[in-house]
Task: structure prediction
Amino acid sequence: MINWKLDLRLIALIELFIATLMGVPTIIAAVLGEREALIGFGVTYLAVVIFCAAILIATMKPESKNFYARDGFFVVTLTWVVATAFSALPLYVSGSLPDYSSAYFEIMSGFTTTGATTLSEIETLPRSILFWRSQTNWLGGMGIVVLFVALLPALGVTGTMLVGAESVGPTKDKLTPKIKTTALWLWSIYVGFSVVQTLLLFFGGLSLYDAVTVTFSTMSTAGFTTKNSSIAGFGSAYVDIVVTVFMAIGGMNFALYWRLFVGKAKSVFRDTELRAYLGILGTSIIVSAAYMTVSRTFPSFWASLRYSAFQNTSVMTTTGFTSTDYETWPAFSQMILFFLFFIGGSAGSTAGGIKVVRVVVLYKLARYQLKKRIHPKGVFQVRIGETILSPDVISAIATFVGVYIFTGLIGALILSFSGTDVFTSISA
Result:
């Protein structure tokens, strides 16, 4: 049985927590005199307070404090749905989007770091609304529930169940015995990188507003920007380089950064997935840049390298930023992007995709099957580093990849039915 009262009480507390995070965009709206946006945030605060107060009063005395895995899944799922419902209100009430369904889509895309948008003229929206839109990327990258667990004391087993149920980004790696400490570590690393990137962009010529909003979408590998033409709108090689580096950082397993911090550097450099991630990304960048230089897509090798590094990193980490029109690239370079899109970033990162470690396992499984055919009596094993993978784990990975590809193809088929071209249908 689901512990309804305790679960609803937790959801209400998390919603109040999220509402407090709207403080910065609300202040921006007030300072810039964005009246419609300010009204939108005000209506949202009022709606959240009424909703949460009603739930907290109704669930004042839960019959039981037992919290199980099913409660964790219920709380996390409903938290995302309800959080999106309230967080979309500023966009709708301010008139930034024509209807509530579009506003809901935009914010759900933000929280899930999908990066899809219905907006074409982004720069016409109030700056406070664009800030909140980008902030949802950043919150979703590491996970709102994980931040809640990190900051709220004495959750105990409840916090463990919540983090386990969310399973977003790096949260699946338990770095320390206490889940609260793990959550705090991960968010500290995430915030630390965000601060560094913001400062680099700010001192590189961007306004503080642009530096922060770009950082929000870079570290979360989500892709929202305040420009119609994405990062290309800044027209800066320096910005391209900084964003490329931090997209790559966001695509790595955050547990590796913790290992570096506690002095376990050797285990980091021996990490199979990290080597594969950097190898695949580095090779794709060099090969694509060389090909575009030969085909004279760009005037020099360095220009080809700049755009190749940015776009290949953006696609592999599923960030979705653009610094140039890659649709004008040669077919070979576009196909590299296509394959990187499916591979994705590392497990335990904020990136999406199949994940590099699964691709490595599939490669080793294929090699294992080939060896078995050549040497039927030989004894072989599938390993990742020093770990021998069990048949159950291999089967689960193969099943996941199969379902992932099948679901993607079905989605592409549905989109193509509406008239969307093949490449867009698949990449969407």
About this structure: The two ends are 38 Å apart (CA to CA). The CA atoms of residues 338 and 423 lie 9 Å apart. The mean pLDDT is 88.
